[in-house]
Design goal:
Length: 427
């Protein structure tokens, strides 16, 4: 308005006239007065001067600002804390987090719009990490920044002690009932942190869940048997994961195995016959003799057993009875398939062939003929279900691999994260 105050009197008068007559119309109904005021030379000059005052000076492009969490030089950061990097007034071009020593690089993922990055793995304990970022703002200029943070120190590490299946004990092609079984070398109290870093991939996705039997043993099984011919990969992203107070995972671990054809063997202590079905078709029927009973330990357990081992030769001794006592025995038995931890096998028993198919005369094992035992051990995969019915003694879930003895509801009671579908394995 300062510039208008020093203008000519005619210009000021014309401006006032425009203000007063802006709503009038000519006889034709058009806004003639307004049109003259806004379209005439003097009015145009006034409008141009007013616009210049309103617009002011254009703002320059803004440079990017990068925000990193944890803050620079922060210490004692939990290993499972997610590192988050965001760009304000710009986008991230690259984020690199490098750990000192053998820690390596911490991986992460960038958001679709390029404004946020987050880490996807656990950091290593007692490690200093350097975060290097490159961002660009609206001005197009790259901005590089560097910061550091250090993680909490570990007093002890934990590792996977054993995992089943494996190449040596079970082979890498297993039956449709095979669970994944992990034993740790230290007690685990932070089960949630550990379990969420145990990932199952499969070429045919299934619903499944982990189950803690105690603080050192956690097993995975599907809701239903594995689909035949499924490729499976287990990944344990445990490096830096908190397992207990001051105890952190030592390393990552992964292994692959395959589910073979579908084979289920069923037998009844009442009918005295084992029937083997493969991919839905009966391929063999074998007369059998189960536990004679009397003493509880001489009953064959009923339930869903799994083939746990295949042994060409097994030395069997009487349970709970020593040498020189009544009922003691020690036998060398051939072609045995173990089905529990209470001494039960499907095995060759030439001495009971006359009773097989008719009566139960064993001390708890499933007796079959030498010919059938040789065929069975050759055609059985570790993890094949072997289901026995008719006995009053029920297989306990903790007796061998009695995982399928628990209902799905019971299984999930001991899972920290409950059920979830397996990740798709692309091969």
């Amino acid at each position: 308005m300062g510039r208008l105050a020093h203008g000519s009197a005619g210009l000021l008068a014309l401006a006032l006239l425009t203000s007063c007559s802006g709503t009038q119309t000519d006889p034709s109904g058009s806004a003639g007065a307004t049109g003259a005021a806004t379209g005439g030379p003097a009015a145009g000059a006034a409008a141009g001067q007013t616009a210049a005052v309103g617009e002011g000076v254009a703002k320059p492009p803004v440079a990017a600002t990068v925000v990193v969490n944890p803050l620079n030089k922060a210490g004692n950061i939990p290993t499972d804390q997610t590192v988050v990097v965001t760009a304000q007034s710009g986008t991230l071009k690259s984020v690199r987090i490098q750990g000192g020593g053998k820690a390596g690089e911490l991986p992460g993922v960038l958001s679709a719009d390029g404004t946020a990055w987050r880490s996807t793995r656990t950091a290593r304990p007692g490690t200093t990490y350097t975060i290097t970022t490159l961002a660009a703002g609206a001005d197009g200029k790259p901005i590089e920044s560097t910061s550091t943070f250090s993680t909490v120190k570990a007093t002890k590490t934990f590792d996977i002690e054993t995992v089943t299946p494996n190449r040596y004990d079970t082979g890498l092609t297993v039956g449709i009932g095979m669970p994944v079984m992990i034993t740790f070398d230290q007690p685990i109290t932070d089960r949630v942190a550990v379990e969420r870093n145990l990932v199952i991939h499969s070429s045919k996705p299934v619903e499944g869940a982990w189950h803690w039997f105690d603080d050192r043993h956690v097993d995975f099984r599907p809701l239903h048997y594995w689909p035949a011919h499924t490729n499976v990969r287990m990944e344990a992203h445990l490096a830096g994961v908190r397992g207990a107070e001051g105890v952190y995972g030592k390393r990552d671990f992964a292994f692959d195995f395959k589910i073979g054809r579908s084979q289920i063997t069923k037998g009844s202590t009442d009918v005295h016959v084992l029937t083997v079905r493969r991919d839905g078709k009966t391929i063999r029927t074998m007369p059998m003799s189960a536990g004679q009973g009397g003493d509880w330990k001489y009953y064959t357990t009923s339930g869903i057993h799994l083939a746990m081992s295949r042994e060409p030769v097994t030395v069997m001794t009487s349970p709970g009875i020593g040498p020189g006592s009544a009922g003691y025995y020690q036998l060398t038995v051939y072609n045995t398939v173990r089905i529990s931890n209470s001494g039960e096998y499907v095995h060759s028993a030439p001495w009971s062939v006359g009773s097989q198919g008719y009566a139960n005369v064993s001390h708890g094992c499933v007796n079959v003929s030498p010919e059938n035992a040789a065929w069975f051990i050759k055609n059985t995969l570790i993890g094949d279900p072997i289901i026995i019915t008719g006995s009053p003694r029920v297989l306990e879930p903790t007796n061998g691999w009695g995982h399928w003895q628990e209902s799905w509801r019971e299984w999930l009671k001991w899972s920290s994260l409950k059920a979830a579908p397996t990740m798709l394995l692309n091969r």
